[in-house]
Amino acid sequence: MIGVQELIHKLELGAWARPLKVLTALLGVLAFTVWYDFHEYRNFAAPEAMEAAQLGRNLAAGKGFVTECVRPLTIHLVEKQQGVEARLSHRPHPDLANPPVYPLLLAGLMKVLPFDYQTGENFLRYQPEVLIAILNQALFFLMVWLVFRLARRLFDGWVALVTAVVLLGCDTLWRFSVSGLSTMLLLVIWTALVWVLVRLEQGVREGQASPTRLVVWALVAGALVGLGGLTRYAFAWVLAPVLVFGALYWGPRRGALCGCVVLTFLVLMTPWLARNYTVSGTLFGVPGFALYQETPTFPGNRLERSLDPDLSQIELQDFLRKLFVNGAQIVREGLPRLGGSWVSAFFLVGLMLPFRNPALSRLRVFLLLSLLVLGVVQALGHTHLSADAPEFNSENLLVLLAPLVFLFGVGLFFLLLDQLALPVPELRWGAIGFFTLVGCGSLLFALLPPRTIPIVYPPYLPPWIRESAQFLRPNELMMSDMPWAVAWYGDRTCVWTTLDTDRAFFTINDEHKTISALYLTAMTLNGRLLTELFDDPDWRWGRFAMNILQQHSSVPNGFPLQSAWARYIPNQLLLCDWPRWRGRAR
After folding, report:
1. Cis before residue 462, ω within 30 degrees of 0?
2. CA distance 216 to 219
3. Where are the domains of the chain?
4. Within 10 Å of residue 143's Cβ, how many Cβ atoms?
5. What is the mean pLDDT of residues 98-117?
6. From CA 379, how far away is CA 316, in angstroms rounded?
7. How far apart are alpha carbons 167 and 170 in whole angstroms?
8. How far lies 289's CA from each of 75, 285, 309, 396, in Å?
9. Which tens digit of pLDDT belongs to each residue from 38-52?
10. For residue range 404-438, what is the model confidence (pLDDT) as tens digits?
11. 434-to-140, 429, 437 alpha-carbon distances in Å
């Protein structure tokens, strides 16, 4: 039997000391996560999160890659490629907005856990979104653990520990973890890719790894880039800095190793791109049109709401203007705030200092190449999604670099600290504690009162959205200014409001599928009076709704949806083909 002294020894210095410390740290992180979720959690605000979630639900139900969030643009693409047989009245609409990996991950989660899609009367948090947030927070912790291992390999234990704590104290990453976006999964893939590149570079430089092992690492690197590209198409551009890094540092076998990277990348990406082309005649679906959005011809969401867009109107100077305008904003705001922490300032200063460890110097080159490539891609890929959910959206690519940026920032801090002649050792611990505390400052201030309200209203109020959508039968079609929310909360097929209230609307209604309800929310009704409701040609539905509200629910003659539900007015407007609220359709 173990004595008291022996037990104390095992807990403090013996075999149980390390597991006890790890267990204590895990319990601390778990307790903090629960505290954060009760204090700062919010329901989904990004349209991409709702769209991916409803696609995951369809996959879990065995429906395949079909969506209930329909765009006029994708209606045009699908019919142009497949003919009238692919119209909404004939078959479910194929999803052309999401790469497959993240929705498949959500579908697996929905298969395993009991998801409850009811909103209830006293709504505060949407249970499916809470479960998705927990999944993403698990990915967040996995990323932190990978960065910790990488930092310990490249620096030492103290740099690894402080880097992990600063990452865990980053408010931006926590907010991404509850956003429902695929960012956390991409961060895991990105960190794993960096780990593989470090191992590959070290194996080539030291000459101790066998050719077979180098080939395996190169194949894994290509697979990770491909997996990231199938999680978010823009991530596929990381292939460029990977190949440049390989050409610079992979020695005489660089050609074969780079070829292995490209091979596995193409093996993973090609089948899905072929599927997209077969369905729509495009390789990347809706994300492939991001380059054309937010140009003078297609400002805001005009392109996705167009039933037959003319892309020939756009000129080269429009792309250059978009690059320079958004690029300037990235340099002015994105880089200084990278990761939402001032630790990134240490990284920027550290660019001027050399490292004795060649692995660090070469990894920094890869980081700078990635920063350049992803910065250009983010600038050219800027769309209305960045305005719908500023900073916390799928177009924020620079946040993927935060783990490496924090790693180099913390490394520079310790490098400077080691050169200070401190009079007493305690000052060193004080400096490390102060640095860590300030690095986590944004999260600490976020947790101070007042408590965040989980409901993201306006414009999203899930009980109202679900109630409106449930008036329709599962095979009927709704039109709304937030089709992603109707699809996710209401589980009904919904097409985005067309650019006009007559020609395009009646084209869909008469030729594709009858529109049984029109649901307009604060996204339309909160328009600016002069610049949007009166003058903007894309705000016709706003003028349409305003005229109805001014005339006390009188719908214009000739419009097929004549019944207005007075319960939502003036906050929202619901028009149906008949008073469905008198006999609810389930």
Report:
1. no
2. 5
3. 4-40, 130-446, 462-582
4. 24
5. 96
6. 15
7. 5
8. 14, 7, 11, 17
9. 888 999 999 999 999
10. 999 999 998 998 888 887 777 778 888 889 999 98
11. 24, 9, 5
